[in-house]
Specification:
By secondary structure, this protein is mostly helical. The protein has two domains: 3-62, lambda repressor-like DNA-binding domains (434 Repressor (Amino-terminal Domain), Orthogonal Bundle), CATH 1.10.260; 71-171, no CATH class. The protein has helices at 3-14, 19-26, 30-37, 47-55, 59-62, 71-79, 90-102, 109-139, 146-171. It is elongated and about 75 Å long. The relative contact order is 0.10. The model has no long low-confidence stretch (mean pLDDT 86).
Length: 187
């Protein structure tokens, strides 16, 4: 628990907030923030939740209770999406397995995993729908809706580029929910 103060200070500094700004935004006494960051006291009650809301992080990540940072696992997690190239819905199955196995052991994985999986589910539905409609039109000789083929190719390319881009961001120390979430199926 002595690392809590260090973590809060590091995240606060990374976000460019002063202790005063954090205290004001979190509606917590400035002296409380100072004591927590200097490891003179532990945050109790609503205080950790208020601070974490302002810092836009999960309370579990600060009060990690045995969680560890593992940047390489997060990188592998993002790149596991690329399995869809070889196995249909591999972009959901492998990340889901990785997420379920370590979401309570690695800092940031719970929120990042839900974000990634939600995007991959929506992406899979859109991709499958576009290629299915294209195929039906082609078989029925209704003409060739080439825009559906282009949509399918575009979605495919996006799902190759985004995981690589986000893995690079993680390797540079950036964290967060990178994928756009249209629908939140997994929390």
């Amino acid at each position: 628990m002595k690392e809590v103060g260090k973590k809060i200070r590091a995240i606060r500094n990374k976000k460019g907030l002063s202790q005063e700004a954090l205290a004001e935004s979190a509606k917590v006494n400035l002296r409380t923030i100072q004591r927590i960051e200097n490891n003179e006291s532990e945050p109790r009650g609503k205080t950790p939740h208020l601070i974490c809301d302002v810092l836009d992080i999960n309370t579990e990540d600060i009060l990690d209770y045995g969680k560890q940072e593992d940047k390489s696992y997060l990188i592998i997690f993002h790149l596991s999406v690329l399995l869809f190239i070889a196995i249909p819905v591999g972009n959901i199955i492998l990340p889901l397995i990785l997420w379920l196995n370590k979401k309570d052991k690695i800092i940031g994985l719970k929120k990042t995993g839900a974000n990634l999986l939600n995007f991959q589910i929506v992406w899979s539905v859109f991709t499958f729908t576009s290629i299915t409609i294209f195929t039906i039109f082609k078989i029925q000789h209704y003409g060739t809706p080439t825009f559906l083929l282009y949509l399918f190719i575009g979605l495919y390319v996006v799902n190759i580029i985004l995981p690589i881009l986000f893995a690079v961001k993680i390797s540079k120390g950036k964290t967060g929910n990178f994928y756009p979430n249209l629908i939140k199926l997994i929390k």
